[in-house]
Task: structure prediction
Amino acid sequence: MGRLIVIFALLFSLYATRHGWMPAHSLSAEELQIVLAAEPEQTKPEDDSVIFWTWSDSTVQITPLFDYRMVARVMGTKRYRFDREARYSPLDLLVTWGPAADPALDDYVDWSQSARFGFFEYQALPPGIDNQTIGVHMANTHLIPADDDVADRMGDIHRGDLVEIEGMLVTLREEWDDGRWYAWTSSTTREDTGAGACEVILVQNVRINGA
Result:
């Protein structure tokens, strides 16, 4: 019986980790220093050429707004398969950096994602941290893989990981053969909230826990 309990606990831990119920990665002292000092880097794009993707029934136009690089701690992953954006953005990451990424907050703050939004809740916060501090050091990011290799790499990201993501903030416009169209534009500031406040990132490179 004891062996069965151990096996069940290991299986439950693996399942819980993969579904974002518990962190899969504990930050080393070096990683903690990196993420506590991190701020997203947003610069004028080196190449602002419009990118076109063609599907059987539509054309997607991707317009670069800024080159973008972020080092952040992953507080949640949400995979999408059936919403309008899922065909080009199958994954949202809820990330933190700076003081909001401190593991000392884990006992105070609950993180969640739903319908392409990210949320945080708390009953109380430790001294030196307030709602605004968390709000400007977190983001729910919509990730668009630039190619299949990046898409595969994105599938390895789990809650608790330290990620480095390089790419571009973009505006995406999809036009269907029947005349319908849809546009999705990235936020370009870390200080906004609500609808339209998420970063839409064309991801060109991903590193997870330094690898």
Summary: Residues 2-18 form the longest helix (17 residues). The CA atoms of residues 82 and 107 lie 33 Å apart.
